[in-house]
Design brief:
82 residues; mainly alpha
Length: 82
C-alpha cells in the first residue's frame, strides 16, 4: 500500500509541493510522524527553501519537516534522491 501513497505523492504533490503547502489554510502541525518523515525524505532543499510564507509565520509544520529531514540525513548519511 505504501507504493500507492508514494506514487500519488510523487506524481501529484511533489511537483507543486511548496505552492500547495504555502496555500494550505489548515494547520499541518499534527501531520502523522510517519507521513512527515516520508515527505522529508522526498522533498528537495529547493522545495524547503520555497516555503517562505509558512516560515515567516513560524509554522511548526515547517520546523517538524526540517527536523525530520535532518533525522533522515543523519540516519542514512546521504541526501535522499529526488
Amino acid at each position: 500500500m505504501q507504493w500507492v501513497y508514494t506514487r500519488v505523492f510523487l506524481d501529484c504533490l511533489l511537483p507543486d509541493f511548496s505552492e500547495i503547502i504555502n496555500r494550505c489554510k489548515i494547520s499541518l502541525n499534527t501531520v502523522n510522524d510517519v507521513i512527515l518523515y516520508h515527505m522529508a525524505s522526498l522533498v528537495s532543499n529547493q522545495h524547503l527553501s520555497n516555503l517562505k510564507e509558512r516560515k515567516i509565520k513560524g509554522d511548526k509544520f515547517i520546523s517538524n519537516l526540517f527536523k525530520a529531514r535532518i533525522d533522515y540525513k543523519l540516519l542514512f548519511k546521504s541526501p535522499p534522491s529526488n
